[in-house]
Fold:
Amino acid sequence: MLCRLGRLVLLGIIALAVTPSLALAQEQPPQLDFAKLSEEAAGWLAGLIRIDTSNPPGNELAAAKYLAAILEKEGIPAEVLESAPGRGVLIARLRASAVPDPARALLLLAHLDVVGVQKEKWSVDPFGGVIKDGYLYGRGAIDDKGMVVANLAVLVALKRGGVRLDRDVIFLAEGDEEESGQYGMDFVINKHWDKIAAGFAINEGGRVRLKDGRVQYVGVQASEKIPVNVTVFANGPSGHGSQPRKDNAIVHLAAAVAKLGAYVAPAKPNTIVRRYFEQLAKIEDPETAKWMRALETPERMEHAARVLSEASPMWNSMLRNSIAPTVLRAGFRANVVPSEAHANLNIRLLPGESVEPLVEEFKKLVNDPQVRFRIEPSMRPPAPPSSIETELFRTIERVGASVFPGAIVLPFLSTGATDSAQLRLHRVEAYGLFPFPLVDEDDRRMHAEDERIPLDSFRKGIEFLYRVVEEFSRAK
Structure:
């Protein structure tokens, strides 16, 4: 038998052996159940979709208050800022354990407003938050309420897990992205920059492409095209519809739009686009990969761009300035020839390009004295690209390869505009990381009928985004 002294010594040794293990266990955050978290988040998303934030008029304030209530229940203070009657943004923050440094902070942002709908063309209520056959349907499920709720889920998971942060993580749910940005991002930057100041940001604009049941690649938006609208006018004498004339304004406008719709600008792949195709060539079929690599050969570049453009509308737009007629307006009575007709051209410029030389090309192409052009005020400012050499981009690369085995992570030029442009002008390294794996058919539902997100993809996207944010922001 051990004497009393021996027993005390033995107990001391056991205590010393056990204590570090207990301390280590206490330091480890609890294992995150992504299935449970995403199920909860799907309920949040359905509720958010049921708040109609079609822009115009927006109504983002109601959505911001809805999210604020969720955050308050989690013990995360949230601030709702009203930018105009019925409009506003939401800001919340998890603070770092060290002294906060705005240059190191990470901003997670997404927009609350959505484009309008034609309800009669939907198979479900676009604002019903309907879950059917493994999908969550509704306007904004993809653009961009799904991203809003993914960001929300990440913030909640970090808080619940007690993750010690090395940098502040800021949550911003903003509005007016689908229109001018005046009541959303511009409002926050101009009047409340101190509340969102950050060195890094994750926003919409990227893509996770799902093909044949597996993720093919993760596209990280590091730059974006610049949207500009140009109005085309045609004038002519008005008159009775019973007496047709060759100088009919509608006829001249239609001829001009036909020429402009068929116009193909020369290919000008920039550094990010070249890097995108260079990386994608590693996993594409041999024939397509051949033309992707040929973009690097000056004498074959134009032909290669033509082949790739025919294969994908997105690739076509990534390679050149694009022109899409989107609106036609003319006439007011069936038996009256109008004196004016006009159309809208939605132009997406490559970074660094100007619209004026393009309009001069249009004038030569149309060659009609009855037709004139007007450049409308720019909807978004041109901005420099984000660096693809930062620690955040490298973190996305590492995590993407881990969460989606076999997929490649590559930089991406988005053909659509986002609020990252305004952030990049404030020296924020902003990246588009739409994290949900989608097949092309679902991706094309953005701004279209029966917009939906697969619940499996929603869960995987939350896991992907959480792991990126946690690895980048956790105190080492």
